[in-house]
Amino acid sequence: MKLLLHAGPMKTVTTAFQELMHSNSDLLGAKGLRFRWLRRRELNCLSDVMAQEQAKGWPKGLILSHECLFSLSHHRLNDALSGYPGERYAVMVARRLREVYPSFYLQNLKGHVMRSSSFKVFLKEQISRDSSPRLAEMGHIFRYQYLEKQLLAAGCRVAWLVYNRASLLKELVNQFAYLLGVPLDFDAMASLAPPSGTSPRRSLDGSMIPITRQSNRQTKKGAVSVAARDALLASMLDGSDRIRKQRNGSDPWLSTHAFDLDAWDEQINGDFWRRLTRSEP
Q: Is 210 helix (H, G, I), strand (E, B) or coil?
């Protein structure tokens, strides 16, 4: 028996993977696998989650998925998983900071956080968090070696994939199949419906940042209802899709801080990236 944690972090096709596995639960069940898409509140009672899974009878392979699993201290995580009788693995995805920081900021703008501050302010906060992850009381960490140490200390073997937008979803399925020792044919799985509305799988174009920030400010003040804000956001996401189809090349906003973020990535993740590159076949 094997327990696999799909632990993110954010902005590494986590939602797409969760929706794919959830929609193929019958196929997984026929192979002796069980997938559980954890809710945020369940992270605070992971021991109860494990007790519920045990009561159902341990499957050949149990997959627990949440992009904040790594945020639990290794003591809490180890305690919650201590009753599992099989091997434990964690699957993580590493994404370059020049990509993941801007993507995470855009997610903060359109998500329930309703961020209204600038990208400059966001960068200051995120760099501070990644500078001293042990002191970070909340938020996400993109200091990959630190995340790995947390999961190793919780008794998990850690497998890494490198973010590739075009192929990552298939690579994730293949990685889980390999670790579980169960054949999973990605092409035979029920495909995902195209995202719509304010789905987490959709992203804003950089040109939409000013109006989104203003909309969030007005919503927080109560001048705009949440429903009206969400309707406007859905329209901006539709507009972002149209802009991307018409534009030649990538969103220029995404590269605004690329040079500085590459230098920061080297400072906190350089050794990790070199090790990961050496370990690739």
A: helix
Extract the runs of DSSP E, i.e. beta strands, from 87-183: 87-94, 157-162
For 175-233, write each residue's pLDDT tens digit: 999 999 999 999 999 999 999 999 999 999 999 999 999 999 999 999 999 999 999 99
DSSP secondary structure code for residue 195 in this structure: P
Cα–Cα distance list, 72 to 78, 138, 153 (Å):
9, 11, 11
62 in Cβ contact with 34 (< 8 Å)? yes
Distances (CA, A) of 261 to 78, 121, 173: 33, 14, 30
What pTM was estimated for this model as a whole? 0.94
Confirm if 94 and 272 have CB atoms less than 8 A apart. yes
CA angle, residues 247, 165, 61, in degrees to nearest 5 = 155
Strands, sheet with 61-65, edge to edge from the N-terminal-most edge strand: 33-37, 61-65, 2-6, 87-94, 157-162
Other CB atoms within a 10 A radius of the CB of residue 240 amount to 20
Which residues are within 8 A (CB) of 200 and not within 5 positions of it... i.e. 6 or more apart?
15, 107, 111
Longest Cα pair distance anywhere in the chain, in angstroms?
A: 55
Phi/psi zone of residue 73: left (φ > 0), alpha (ψ -120 to 50 degrees), beta? beta
Distance, in Å, from the CA atom of 22 to the CA atom of 66, rounded to the nearest integer, reads 13
Burial class for 27, CB neighbours closer than 10 Å (0-12, 13-18, 19+): middle
Residue 55 CB neighbours (<10 A): 8
Contact 172, 17 (CB under 8 A): yes
